[in-house]
Design goal:
alpha+beta, C8orf32 fold, 2 domains, 4-stranded antiparallel sheet, 3-stranded antiparallel sheet, 18 helices, 11 strands
Length: 438
């Protein structure tokens, strides 16, 4: 809703909602800024960008939003003389749009373990950077992850139709407002998972925090969290749909059995180094999509029924859903590009981090139970029109992790071993460094 010249997004808005709100308000901001745009026009594009930058840097006080996430229109920004990176970027885009300068929004993350955007600024298509929060003209802090949103000038102008940081003093580390409104640790404090104590105290006295701190920086855990989020965002096997149903029931009644189940997944995600707010974001994004991954869904139902798929089977299902590639359980080879071991954005990374994400997916399945898992799912096909390789049969329901590719199931142990060999040192490090449960 509107509050003066401010668009109040919502309390505790998630990252995707904030991005949509920013982009949705720009057309109105552009129309509003039409009467003032010319005052920022320079002799060339660079001079124009510098005038916008100087105005924001010298006249607007940086103030991060809290739980109530807001996007200020230009008049609101100029009236209150305060805002954060969201409002800075809306103002900049509105001026550039009126002056006919093509540009894009830059969503950036500075966390190697999480690509979720935590800051936003503007860059022209010719490469001029306007980030007054960073405080240096035509410069940007090096981001680990970036994504761009091109602005359609004619449309926007109406002509033809966690948590980046207090960027004040060029520092980065508190809240800029575009990221998740709470960090993983803040979530845990708010819901009583850990006491509201200093991190130093928690490091000595709290087991949940120690697990969180260790797994947050553990490479294989970070990569595994990335794979789980991508599987959720693809709605692999209908997993996001099922979890969203559970979440909605939990939200409706915090004393229900569904609440206890969903909270158990949140706590486990936290203890494995993640932010439960971002876990929920991936669920909600995936729930909007048609479920895909017949084989992934099949493994979910098999596990809910008591059969234990081996890691090779989960790898084959996961790679098929996310990349449309085939994984040979017997050889541990991925058809096509097998680069990027450890990077969840690649098929090789999905295989490498399977010792982390496959057990977590198993926990999700167990919490959901067989009745909550979808019975009909669309298809995620391999390169040749089939999903995965031979050797994905159900085997005997003996709970031994079978699923070999011949009648006597001799392939079971072989296919379970090969993924471990594939990941080598990364997996070894995971099992050695993973905090023990107490």
């Amino acid at each position: 809703m509107r509050v003066g010249q401010t668009i109040l997004v919502k309390q505790n808005a998630n990252n995707s909602e904030l991005q949509r709100a920013i982009e949705a308000v720009i057309p109105a901001a552009t129309k509003q800024a039409a009467s003032i745009a010319d005052r920022y026009k320079g002799k060339n594009e660079a001079e124009t960008c510098k005038k916008i930058f100087d105005y924001l840097k010298n006249n607007i006080n940086y103030k991060a939003d809290g739980a109530n996430q807001a996007v200020r229109l230009p008049s609101g920004l100029m009236r209150t003389l305060q805002g954060d990176c969201k409002s800075y970027s809306v103002f900049t885009s509105a001026i550039l749009s009126n002056l006919g300068i093509p540009h894009k929004l830059v969503y950036a993350s500075y966390d190697a373990s999480d690509p979720t955007p935590t800051h936003i600024y503007v860059m022209t298509n010719k490469g001029c950077i306007i980030d007054a929060v960073y405080g240096k003209f035509n410069a940007e802090k090096k981001a680990t992850y970036k994504k761009y949103k091109n602005m359609n000038i004619s449309y926007i102008a109406g002509m033809n139709k966690r948590r980046m940081g207090s960027m004040a003093n060029n520092s980065i580390g508190r809240s800029c407002g575009i990221g998740a409104t709470m960090s993983g640790l803040e979530w845990a404090r708010q819901f009583g998972v850990v006491p509201n104590k200093s991190e130093a105290w928690l490091a000595i006295n709290n087991g949940s925090y120690r697990k969180y701190a260790a797994n947050k920086i553990l490479i294989v855990a970070a990569g595994g969290r990335g794979v789980v989020r991508k599987l959720l965002e693809k709605n692999a096997g209908g997993m996001a749909t099922s979890l969203n149903t559970l979440y909605q029931a939990a939200k409706a009644n915090n004393a229900s059995e569904q609440f206890k189940k969903y909270r158990s997944l949140e706590i486990d995600w936290f203890e494995n180094g993640g932010n439960p707010n971002e876990f929920l974001e991936s669920i909600q994004e995936g729930a909007k999509k048609t479920p895909t991954g017949k084989y992934f869904n099949k493994l979910m139902k098999m596990r809910a029924g008591g059969y234990t798929p081996n890691i090779a089977q989960w790898i084959a299902a996961g790679i098929s859903v996310m990349f449309g590639k085939k994984y040979n359980e017997s050889t541990g080879q991925i058809k096509g590009n097998n680069s990027g071991i450890g990077d969840p954005a690649t098929a090789g990374g999905t295989a490498a981090t399977a010792p982390w994400w496959a057990p977590y997916v198993t926990k999700i399945v167990i919490v959901l139970g067989s009745t909550a898992i979808l019975g009909t799912v669309g298809s995620a096909l391999g390169e040749d029109g089939t999903e995965g390789e031979a050797g994905q049969g159900e085997g005997q329901n003996n709970n031994t992790g079978g699923g070999g590719n011949d009648n006597n199931n001799e392939g079971s142990g072989r296919s379970a071993l090969l993924p471990i060999l594939l990941i080598g040192g990364a997996a070894a490090a995971y099992f050695i460094l993973k905090p023990s449960k107490k």
